[in-house]
Specification:
With about 290 residues, the chain is α/β, with parallel strands linked by helices. It folds into 2 domains: about 140 residues, 3-Layer(aba) Sandwich (Rossmann fold), CATH 3.40.50.620; about 120 residues, Rossmann fold. Helix content is about 40%, strand content about 25%. It has a 12-stranded mixed beta sheet, with helices on both faces. α8 runs parallel beside α10. It is globular and about 65 Å long.
Length: about 290
């Protein structure tokens, strides 16, 4: 599996995002790529400058984004995701290719870590990266408004984890949103692994607008209960009547990580009207993971 973390700078917020991404990647034994998208500069990425001729100080003059990659490198070492004997950050190991610069690092459990620099519009370059190299999961910060949240979910062809209002000192629980959609079982599996990584209790809920729950909803609720019991995780299961988005938000509050399937279906209709996952992500006050089927 391949996970992608987008960082915007070297702030504590970005470091928290990096830490949660590293923790989740460890649980999945996934390859991890850290991506920084900077402002368009003097076209090093287009190959106008021979990469290996430059010292780190010269790199930083031409490409301030290299400093962010170096910070990510040191942070990943601090989190124990790199072998202790890993050499120092060396710009001569940077490789330019197809509108991106990358550095490949070893990793303590055998997977690979990539540090990647792109330039340009954030969403556009993030989309290009997920098209250039297939990723299972994209981990991003909270978009600036509802419209951008809709765009990120709609146009990134991966599962997507939006790190909103994350506080590493909190004891988060998992709110697992269960229905009869194609992505639900995969979302449950993701939620279970994240629960184990964070030692987090799972509240699995199935929400129906009607008092009568359909066969598909009942079967999904039974399946999640059986699956979580088999894994011997801490959990409880509820079936609740109400507006799904409203119930998800009420139950999640600000101390749960929401996990749910990423809606499939007619892309044009979803673009115009949205979907339960999109509406939930737009209104949530806590981190939310939308899992693609």
């Amino acid at each position: 599996m391949r996970f992608l973390i987008a960082v915007k700078d070297t702030s504590p917020e970005s470091k928290n995002r990096l830490k949660i991404g590293v923790t989740i990647a460890s649980g999945f034994s996934a390859d991890l790529s850290v991506l920084y998208i900077g402002k368009k500069s003097s076209s090093i990425i287009e190959g106008d400058i021979a990469l290996t001729r430059y010292s780190l100080s010269e790199w930083n003059i031409h490409h301030p984004g290299i400093e962010v990659l170096m910070w990510a490198f040191e942070s990943i070492k601090e989190f124990g995701f790199l072998p202790a004997e890993t050499a120092e950050f060396d710009p001569s190991n940077l490789i330019a290719e197809s509108g991106r610069i990358r550095m490949v690092l070893p990793q303590s459990s055998g997977e690979k870590i990539h540090l990647i620099l792109r330039e340009g519009d954030l969403l556009s370059e993030l989309h290009k990266e997920t098209q250039y190299r297939p990723y299972e999961l994209s981990i991003i910060g909270a978009p600036e408004n509802n419209r951008m949240t809709h765009k990120y979910i709609q146009f990134l062809d991966t599962s997507i984890f939006i790190i909103k209002n994350f506080d590493p000192s909190w004891n988060y629980k998992i709110l697992l949103c269960v229905d009869d959609s194609a992505a639900t079982k995969r979302a449950i599996m993701f939620g279970a692994i994240i629960s184990r990584q964070f030692n987090a209790h799972i509240h699995a809920i199935t929400v129906s607008k009607n008092k009568t729950f359909g066969k598909g909803y009942k079967n999904a609720s039974r399946w999640v209960e059986k699956y979580l019991r088999m894994l011997k995780l801490s959990f409880n299961v509820s079936m609740i009547t109400g507006n799904p988005t409203d119930v998800f938000l009420r139950e999640a509050g600000d101390n749960h990580i929401i996990v749910m399937g990423k809606a499939s279906g007619n892309e044009f209709i979803k673009f115009l009207k949205g979907s339960k996952p999109i509406h939930t992500a737009q209104k949530a006050n806590s981190p939310i993971l939308l899992v693609k089927s």
